[in-house]
Amino acid sequence: MEQPSEFQSLLEESSRSAWQLYVPHISVDCVVFGFHEASLKVLLLKMKDQELWGLPGGYMKIEEELREAAVRILEERTGAHNIFLQQFGVFSDLNRSEGFFQDFPDTLWMKQRFISVGFYALVDYTKVQPQADNLSSTCAWQDINRLPELMMDHRQIFDEALLTLRRQLNYKPIGYNLLPEEFTMPELQKLYELILGKKLNRGNFYRKMVGYDILEKLDEPRKSGGAYKAPNLYKFHVERYQTALQNGFKEGW
Question: Residue 1 above 60 pLDDT?
Fold first, then answer.
């Protein structure tokens, strides 16, 4: 008789406690975006004994609100706190997970039908310490333009999260949770270009960002040590940024 794999054994062990801990048929999947070295990244987990990767996710405890569950899952995977979190979609296809779990027992908690609520998170890359869970061997950042093959419908969830982020970029500010406290205008522009997937005119970008009145120009430029003029440094004005998040912009990209 063939012995179960380590992954199956871990699933079955987690399943036994899940029936008592969590609300049935509701799951949470999180798309965590970070900005590092001029590239936009997403946090992924690689399942044990599997070639596929997946989004950080989990289930809602019986006495837990949905958003609380998402915050808990993200804190466990990133070690970060006060994360910008946005609910963006519900994924309820009839057989969204059937293929992945087809070789596992029907009594497995994870094999039941789940409706997943998607959240995207914006985090400071430097403050995240990726942590694998008991079902995964690796938790790591991946460039959004070079994603590995994802399990179940996680590619669809990722695509919807990125599309939502792009749409919201047209009327809300983005950057406070992704950039370091001090940054240059070219760094901010690069972030916008990566999210939007297109080049932006440098002059127009500068005028729009200044016109939004959410930036503070710092007195001292960044010290480069080279012959070129050091770039000006900026930071977000937190109060005006929060107001823009609530009220939105009149002009998009």
Answer: no
Same-domain check for residues 203 and 117: no
193 and 94 in a common domain = no
The rounded distance, in Å, linking the Cα atoms of 78 and 70 is: 12
Asked if 43 and 56 count as a contact pair (C-beta separation under 8 A), the reply is yes
Where is average pLDDT lowest: 120-129, 160-169, 172-181, 244-253? Answer: 244-253
- The structure's pTM equals 0.89
| Same domain flag for 86 and 189 | no
Measured between alpha carbons, how far apart are the two ends of the chain, in Å? Answer: 61
Phi, psi of 132 (to 5 degrees): -70, 150
Domain boundary among 168, 196, 226: 168
Strand partners, 236: 215
- Structural contact between residues 244 and 172, judged by C-beta atoms closer than 8 angstroms: yes
* Percent of the chain whose predicted confidence (pLDDT) is above 70: 94
Q: DSSP assignment of 190-219, as one string?
A: HHHHHHHTS---HHHHHHHHHHHT-EEE-S
Nearest to 100 by CA among 60, 53, 142: 53
Domain around 159: 6-168
Identify whether the C-beta of residue 166 lies closer than 8 Å to the C-beta of residue 195. Answer: yes
